[in-house]
Specification:
- Keywords: ATP-binding, Nucleotide-binding.
- Belongs to the thymidylate kinase family.
- With 234 residues, this protein is α/β, with parallel strands linked by helices.
- It has one domain (2-216): P-loop containing nucleotide triphosphate hydrolases (Rossmann fold, 3-Layer(aba) Sandwich), CATH 3.40.50.300.
- It has nine helices and four strands.
- It has helices spanning 13-23, 42-56, 68-85, 104-113, 118-123, 141-145, 153-156, 166-188, 201-216, and strands spanning 2-6, 97-100, 133-137, 191-193.
- A four-stranded parallel β-sheet has the order 2-1-3-4, with helices on both faces.
- Helix 1 (13-23) crosses helix 9 (201-216), helix 2 packs antiparallel against helix 3 and helix 4 packs across helix 8 (166-188).
Length: 234
C-alpha cells in the first residue's frame, strides 16, 4: 500500500510521515523518499541528478524566470521517472510506502502562478501512481506559520505575486494552496485530518495507521499466501 501525507508548507507532513513510517517499520526494506530515483546504473543516476538539480537546486533569488509551464513539466518528468523505476510504487507491491507529500502541491502552486488549464496540468501526471491512501493535514496557515523558524520565498508566495510582510504573504498564499488541496481531497476521496495543535503529533500518526490497518485488512494476501509485509519510506 502506498500512503501519502499531504498539506500546505509547514502543516506537519514530515513529522507525521516519519511517525507513521516508524509505526509500520520493517527492517527488510530500505528507506527512500521521493527525491531518490533508486536506479542501478550510473547513467540513469547521472541523468536523475541533473534533473533533480534543475528542479530543486536553482537559487530562489533568481525567481521563476522560465515560468510555471517549464517547472511543472520538469516536475512531471521527475515523477514519471519515479513511477518507472521505483518498484515500491508499482501496483501490487507487497509492502507499504510512506511519502511526505506527493505532486499535488506542485499542481496547486502551478495553477496559482499562471492561468493554465487545470485538466492539462493534472494530465501531465497520468503515468504517476495514485496513492492507495492520501491524508490531507488540513492545517490553517496561521498554525503552520508558527511551526517553523522560517520559510523560503517559494513558500511565501514571492514567485506568485504575494508580497508584503512574510507572515501576511505566507497566510494569503498558503490559504489559496490550501483551497486547491481541499478541492483535490473532495474530488479524489482523500482522508482529511485537522490536527489539534495543542495535541501531540503522535495522535495524528495513530489516526493514519488506524486507517491504514482498516484498509489493509480488506486487501488480499500475497501470492504465496503470506500476509503483506510493510516497507516504509519517508
Amino acid at each position: 500500500m502506498f500512503i501519502v501525507i499531504e498539506g500546505i508548507d509547514g502543516s506537519g507532513k514530515t513529522t507525521a510521515a516519519r511517525l507513521v513510517a516508524e509505526r509500520l517499520n520493517s527492517a527488510e526494506f530500505p528507506f527512500l523518499g521521493k527525491s531518490e530515483i533508486a536506479a542501478d546504473d550510473e547513467e540513469t543516476l547521472a541523468r536523475a541528478g541533473r534533473l533533480r538539480d534543475l528542479i530543486w537546486a536553482s537559487p530562489e533569488s533568481a525567481g521563476d524566470t522560465f515560468g510555471a509551464t517549464h517547472w511543472i513539466l520538469l516536475i512531471a518528468s521527475w515523477y514519471a521517472g519515479l513511477a518507472r523505476l521505483r518498484q515500491d510504487l508499482t501496483s501490487g507491491h507487497g509492502g507499504v510506502t510512506v511519502m511526505d507529500g506527493w505532486y499535488y502541491r506542485n499542481i496547486a502552486k502551478t495553477l496559482i502562478r499562471e492561468p493554465l488549464d487545470p485538466l492539462w496540468v493534472e494530465s501531465l501526471f497520468a503515468p504517476v501512481p495514485e496513492p492507495d491512501l492520501t491524508v490531507l493535514l488540513d492545517t490553517p496557515p496561521e498554525i503552520a506559520w508558527q511551526r517553523r523558524e522560517g520559510f523560503k520565498d517559494t513558500e511565501l508566495g514571492r514567485w506568485d505575486g504575494f508580497h508584503g510582510p512574510p507572515a501576511e504573504s505566507f497566510h494569503a498564499y498558503q490559504s489559496v494552496v490550501r483551497e486547491h488541496l481541499r478541492r483535490m481531497a473532495r474530488e479524489r476521496g482523500w482522508l482529511v485530518l485537522s490536527p489539534d495543535p495543542t495535541r501531540p503529533p503522535e495522535e495524528t500518526a495513530d489516526a493514519v495507521v488506524s486507517e491504514f490497518r482498516a484498509r489493509s485488512a480488506r486487501l488480499p494476501t500475497a501470492s504465496d499466501g503470506s500476509a503483506l509485509q510493510p516497507v516504509t519510506t519517508s
